[in-house]
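Internal tracking record. Fields below are filled automatically when a chain is submitted to the structure queue. Please do not edit lines marked as system-generated. If the sequence contains nonstandard residues, flag them in the REMARKS field before resubmitting.
Queue: standard
Priority: normal
Entity type: single polypeptide chain
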Amino acid sequence: MTVLTLVANIKANPGYADLVKAELLKLIDSTRAEEGCINYDLHVNNENPNHFVFHETWQTRELWQSHMSAPHMIAYGDAVAGAVESWTLDELTLIA
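SYSTEM-GENERATED OUTPUT FOLLOWS
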C-alpha cells in the first residue's frame, strides 16, 4: 500500500501567530481520529514563530481529501480568515 505524506506550510500574518496556533491545535484530536489518518503532527519553525508546519500521513489520497472537507477543517478556515498570510501543501510519496 502506498501511503500519502503531506507537508503543509501555514504562515500567519504578523500579530496573528497565537490565534493561528490555537486554531491549528484544535484540529489535532479530531483529525487523528479520522479514518485513514496515520499521523498528524504540528510543528513551528524555530526561526519564525509565524510559520507552522503539519507533517501528515494518510492511508489514501481519497481519505485525506475527505479530511479536507470535514466540519472541523471548515471551522478552522472560518476562524483564521484574514489571519493567514499563505498556505502551501506538498504531496509526497515515501521511496525509502
